[in-house]
Design a protein that fits this description.
- This protein has 440 residues and is of the alpha/beta class.
- The protein is 40% helix and 13% strand.
- It has 17 helices and nine strands.
- Strands 1, 2, 3, 4, 5, 6, 7, 8 and 9 form a nine-stranded mixed β-sheet that branches.
- Helix 8 packs antiparallel against helix 9 and helix 16 packs antiparallel against helix 17.
Length: 440
């Protein structure tokens, strides 16, 4: 499960996209919305209000899309109801689905929840394949929200293709190449080569710096770039036997054993402090992570960071959401048309330009605001081109209803290896015991 795209109480900082004027504040802005979650009926003049319930920051307000939709459809007003944290949003959404009451016309779904809804609540949603062509999204994104029978319960919004963010200045001091293509070539063979690069870095590392922030973040990158993750197609949890999990765990243990990680749980205060002090040389870096890095690294490190492609011949995805239309909504037809419009290439490109979340619609990847996008803070890294390429080589993996719990529990035990010196065997036993208590 991805982190909620909102961090309350933090200052806003923008990432300037050199060729498009884009500002990216993904994960850093909390939306504001009305508390009323019920759609209003048509008035005497035939005008209706559609409600959109979502969480964190989907970027529609920042991109001015609801106002634009009203201009195109004067009889329709769109009202967005935003819950700051997805973990608060989802239980309420489930309750509304169960009772059929209080639902918005359009509801957001986080990728870590979509499989559970596909398996257990598909009948509660309108089949969007009747409204939208799912082939417009990257293939694996469409599959995430589809039933075995082909019903599509959610239209893809953003995705989180993962690259490697790295510090050019620290690499140079350690005697390593600094140009993107040369850095990527050093670990072209996969995540094993990434650790070998870490060993090279460690030999001449500037004092007080570490090759990576967290072995658990690397673990997530390894697993997310594998076709076999936590569940099998029949719905059985296979994390104990999964080739992707085994590879990720073994590499994480190796990184800890070789002292390549600073052992910081991502997004916590020590992690933020490390970015500000400049002690982290590389990071597994989904598209939305750039805003986090620029915010906590600050102006002092502008231009020192860069972005290179992910290790190996596949890429990883971390994050992303969907828009759904509950079957018991008051304006199902109109809501479907709104979802179709919001997830079309032009609107996804506008959201990317406004807040930096990367589109799942392949057509958006070809539009100038996406295709030509560069991040000034990251030495003008060509993120539009880079993320589009990576989105095409992310494997179509099986999702499971408790993916987030499994990943988070394993990540906690990797952190214990880093911070407490827990042995890999004891950490694995603790992880599996905790997971089995939850998933049975």
């Amino acid at each position: 499960m991805r982190i909620t795209r909102t961090v309350a109480g933090r200052s806003r900082r923008t990432l300037v996209m050199a060729t498009t004027g884009l500002t990216a504040t993904a994960l850093l802005l909390t939306g504001c919305g009305d508390s009323d979650s019920d759609s209003e009926g048509a008035d005497a003049n035939g005008k209706i209000t559609l409600t959109v319930a979502d969480f964190g920051q989907f970027g529609y307000k920042e991109a001015g899309l609801f106002e634009k939709y009203h201009e195109l459809n004067p009889n329709i007003t769109v009202k967005e109801n935003v819950t700051a944290e997805e973990k608060v949003y989802y239980p309420k959404f489930l309750q509304q689905l169960n009772t059929g009451s209080g639902l918005a016309d359009v509801q957001g779904i986080e990728v870590g929840r979509v499989k559970e809804l596909v398996d257990t609540k598909a009948d509660a949603f309108t089949d969007l394949s009747k409204v939208i062509d799912p082939s417009q999204w990257v293939t694996w994104k469409a599959l995430q929200a589809s039933t075995d029978e082909g019903k599509v319960i959610g239209a893809g919004t953003d995705i989180g293709p993962m690259s490697i963010c790295y510090r050019r200045d620290l690499f140079e001091k350690a005697g390593l190449p600094v140009e993107r293509a040369e850095v990527a070539a050093k670990y072209a063979g996969g995540w094993e080569d990434y650790l070998k690069l870490g060993e090279e870095y460690k030999k001449k590392a500037p004092k007080g710096t570490y090759f990576m922030d967290s072995a658990s973040a690397m673990y997530n990158g390894v697993v997310s770039s594998s076709s076999e993750q936590y569940y099998a197609k029949d719905g059985k949890a296979i994390y104990k036997e999964s080739a992707g999990v085994k590879k990720g765990w073994d590499l994480a243990a190796e990184a800890v054993d070789k002292g390549l990680t600073q052992g910081l749980a991502q997004f916590g205060v020590p992690w933020q402090t490390a970015l500000r002090k400049g002690s982290i040389a590389t990071m597994a870096c989904p598209a939305w992570m750039a805003a986090q890095i620029s915010t906590y690294s600050g102006d002092a490190h502008k231009g020192k960071w860069d972005i290179a492609r992910t290790p190996g011949d596949t890429a990883a995805n971390w994050g992303g959401s969907f828009l759904s239309v509950p079957a018991k909504g008051k304006h199902v037809k109109e809501a479907g048309e709104l979802v179709k419009w919001l997830t079309a290439p032009e609107q996804q490109a506008a959201v990317f330009k406004a807040v930096g979340v990367f589109p799942s619609n392949k057509g958006a990847h070809q539009l100038p605001d996406v295709k030509n996008a560069k991040l000034e803070y990251f030495n003008n890294a060509p993120i539009g081109e880079l993320y589009a390429e990576e989105s095409e080589i992310i494997p179509a993996a099986v999702l499971g209803p408790k993916d987030g719990i499994i990943k988070d529990t394993i990540s906690t035990q990797i952190n214990n290896m880093e911070q407490r010196g827990t042995s890999p065997d004891k950490a694995w036993d603790a992880a599996t015991e905790a997971i089995d208590k939850v998933i049975g």
